[in-house]
């Protein structure tokens, strides 16, 4: 099976971090660079969902939201689906991951794809039974429905949108590092969480 394209979600406001968390340094690299390095071997191509001109793109194609006013991560999913519609050959799915999850598992895409119950289903990553709906495989056939749904400003919640469609979850175990066990979807929102993440970096990741 051809791998899907990956879209890294970096369109948020980073209010809790106080600066753009995608470009904050985690060890020697920007946080988004860790995500790029973990996702790149698993996808057919990569693009970054962020506002026009954002330096988080790291030279990758930039896919800005088409809906104004910071409508949340689903706007990034929609931008990613529209971007993928123009790729050749046109993929059937995209995979998304946020720019603030630097420990993504190496078998993420393989396991999400293997769990697809139907071609038009959404497959969400989970850990310890908790869903991480920003880390998911999304069928391109959802694009029109998602665009229509987001046209109502009351519709913003990922879980609510996902519940309207066929979906399943794949649970991923904690990663064993020499510093202890770590949730593979640990996400870094605050300076304290950044310090915690730094303590888990392996030397080659620094
Ligand atoms: N495209 C897009 N992505 C968003 C938007 N808001 C959040 N995200 C992304 O969704 C994911 C989860 O976002 P949060 O961490 O909850 O929010 P945030 O705005 O990044 O950070 P805070 O301001 O601290 O809440 C991250 O990958 C964000 O980049 C948005 O309005 N548009």
From TrEMBL:
GO CC terms of this entry: cytoplasm
EC number annotated for this UniProt entry: 2.7.7.77
Protein's UniProt keywords contain Nucleotidyltransferase: yes
Cofactor: Mg(2+)
Family matches, as InterPro entries: MobA-like_NTP_Trfase, Molybde_CF_guanTrfase, Nucleotide-diphossugar_trans
SUPFAM superfamilies associated with the record: Nucleotide-diphospho-sugar transferases (SSF53448)
Keywords: Cytoplasm, GTP-binding, Magnesium, Metal-binding, Molybdenum cofactor biosynthesis, Nucleotide-binding, Nucleotidyltransferase, Transferase
Gene Ontology molecular function terms on file: GTP binding; metal ion binding; molybdenum cofactor guanylyltransferase activity
Catalyzed reactions: Mo-molybdopterin + GTP + H(+) = Mo-molybdopterin guanine dinucleotide + diphosphate
MobA-like NTP transferase domain location: 6-158
GO biological processes: bis(molybdopterin guanine dinucleotide)molybdenum biosynthetic process
Binding-site list for Mg(2+): 100
Binding sites annotated in the UniProt record for GTP: 9-11, 21, 49, 65, 100
Family membership noted in the UniProt record: Belongs to the MobA family.
Function comment: Transfers a GMP moiety from GTP to Mo-molybdopterin (Mo-MPT) cofactor (Moco or molybdenum cofactor) to form Mo-molybdopterin guanine dinucleotide (Mo-MGD) cofactor.
Subunit annotation: Monomer.
Protein name: Molybdenum cofactor guanylyltransferase
């Amino acid at each position: 099976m051809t791998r899907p394209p990956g879209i890294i979600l970096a369109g948020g406001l980073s209010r809790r971090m106080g600066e753009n968390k995608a470009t904050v340094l985690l060890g020697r690299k920007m946080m988004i660079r860790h995500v790029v390095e973990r996702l790149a071997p698993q996808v057919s191509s990569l693009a970054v969902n962020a506002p026009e001109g954002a330096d988080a793109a790291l030279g990758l194609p930039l896919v800005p939201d088409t809906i104004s006013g910071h409508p949340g991560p689903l706007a990034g999913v929609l931008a990613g689906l529209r971007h993928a519609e123009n790729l050749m050959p046109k993929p059937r799915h995209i995979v998304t991951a946020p720019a603030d999850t630097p420990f993504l598992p190496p078998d993420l895409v393989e396991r999400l794809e293997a769990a697809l119950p139907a071609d038009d289903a959404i497959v969400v990553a989970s850990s310890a039974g908790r869903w991480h709906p920003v880390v998911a495989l999304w069928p391109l056939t959802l694009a029109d429905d998602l665009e229509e749904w987001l046209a109502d400003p009351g519709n913003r919640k990922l879980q609510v949108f996902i519940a309207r469609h066929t979906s399943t979850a794949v649970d991923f175990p904690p990663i064993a590092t020499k510093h202890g066990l770590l949730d593979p979807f640990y996400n870094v929102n605050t300076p304290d969480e950044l310090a915690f993440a730094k303590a888990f970096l392996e030397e080659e990741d620094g």
